[in-house]
Amino acid sequence: MKIKVLGCLGGRVPGQELTGFLVDEELAIDAGGLAAGLAPEALVKIKYLLISHAHLDHLYSLSYLLENRAYQEVNTPLSIYASEEAAEIITRDFIIDDLLNLPAINQFKKLVRIEKVVPGKIIPVGDYRIEPVPVSHFAGAIGYFVSDGKSEFLFTSDTGPTEEVWEKCQTRPQCQLLITEVSFPNQLEELARLSRHLTPNLLRAELSKARPEGKQVSLYHLKPGHLDQLFQELSELQEFNLHLLKPGMEIEVEGLDQKGKAQIREKSEAVSGKVPKFDFDRDLYEQRQSLDREFGISFEAGDIICEEGRAGRQLYIIQEGQTEVYRMILDKKKVLAILGPGDIFGEMSIFSSQPRSATVRALTRVRVYTFDRAAFEQLLRENYGIAIKLIRMLAQRLQEADVQIENLLYRDTDSKVINTLVRAVEDEGIKTGSGHRLRLSPEQLAIKTDLPVEDIKRVLAKLIRNGVVSFKDGIFKVPDLDRLRRLLDYLEMKSEFEAPESCDL
Q1: Which of 242, 304, 402, 464 is deepest in the core (most CB within 10 A)?
Q2: How far is CA 451 from CA 318, 353, 456, in A?
Q3: Under DSSP, is residue 64 helix (H, G, I), strand (E, B) or coil?
Q4: For range 70-75, the mean pLDDT
């Protein structure tokens, strides 16, 4: 079975749609995002619609779906399956002349056939076997086990803490994909319980009942106002194989192999909206907001964003805040870099599939965009500025590596600091009427030279005292770069004739 995600958010915002899934082009589950996610010719191919419950975010596109079928003069009625309570709400409050246009109302019997289903009673729906199952929500909510005879998946619908669906899940080894909800962050657990939804902590408890060892758990219905916190809290549920659904994603579920495991493959469509393309004829601020909604994540000071030795699937682009990159060498923390807005990290893991080579920790509150490999490759193709930024970043890292190799040739601390400072001014400095300016802190210089900050400050104090450089508010001013180069040449020549410990400014 091929499942296409048409919408999966627990609210409607630009670039995101309400709940809707399409199975093999003819079976739909919920109608929240159907009309927005499919072309008119694809809508008329739908033969069956499973409604999980009669809340607006799961029925939003229903009237558009029926009107489109009326305009296209479809002869076969759409079979809608729902619980008795949900079916009554739909016929009483949704399929009415106040919401539908005249052609749709006049052809209602031709357009629609509503079938009431009973939890626990398996029903044939085309080539599928559907088993409704009770869950804990409102408006006649039920989940569905969907099987084509070779493979099976579970869609739980919106639900709070429940029992029967997870008990059935334990007895169905052929069901290797669970699509379930998580709506609110942990701090809103009381609200989640009252509205019969889940938080990450409640999700952990529910999945423990299902015992989904080896099964893929795909999540939908995240509330737009809480995405940052939900992403962070869900990342802590390491004991489950969790996946976040995205509009345009396709999931292919095949039958069990010889080891009793189903083959599940995911792919994301390369469409604008999944990786937003910047259109200079449109408001760039709005486009940046769209990018931030879908890919933005926040971390608080002290949070570990990625950890050395762990597998990594995401690359990060910092939008605001600062992070430190470090490795543990002989049980000692070695800071490799301080990163800020515009910097990229985590790229090695997604391009080489190797574990993280370093740990990245937030020094302040940090906002990042996070991309998996497919999304980032698409972003590079559609936004050449990002590609240029990545090339410059890699070139800068090569330059820094060259400086560190050069510093190995210098035997004294003064030469290493001055050589690093000269190269930094050449590569990153700004030429002014009175020399060069360079934004660089002693701590950053210490990272570049691989020397203690105390040694850096000692050398800088001598340079400042001799008028070679000045430093104020994080900015170096070098009035005469050639003088700094000559000083480096002098120290190098001096080191040839004196013991290293006697070389000094």
Answers
A1: 242
A2: 26, 31, 7
A3: helix
A4: 76
CA distance 83 to 139: 9
Pick the CATH number of 284-382 from 3.90.330.10, 3.10.20.880, 2.60.120.10, 3.30.2130.30: 2.60.120.10
Half-sphere exposure of 432 (CA within 13 A, CB side): 13
The model's pTM: 0.56
CA dist 357 and 376 (Å) reads: 20
pLDDT in tens, 186-229: 999 999 999 999 999 999 999 999 988 878 899 999 998 888 78
Rounded-to-integer distance, Cα 407 and Cα 456, Å? 14
Instruction: Report which DSSP code applies to 32.
Output: S
Q: The domain 396-502: what is its CATH number?
A: 1.10.10.10
Same topology, domains 2-268 and 396-502? Answer is: no
Q: pLDDT, tens digit, for every residue of 480-491? A: 988 988 888 888
- For the domain made up of 2-268, the CATH class stated in words is alpha beta
Edge to edge, what strands does the sheet with 430-432 contain?
A: 430-432, 435-439, 475-478, 470-472
- The DSSP symbol for 3 reads E
Strand, helix or coil for residue 20: strand
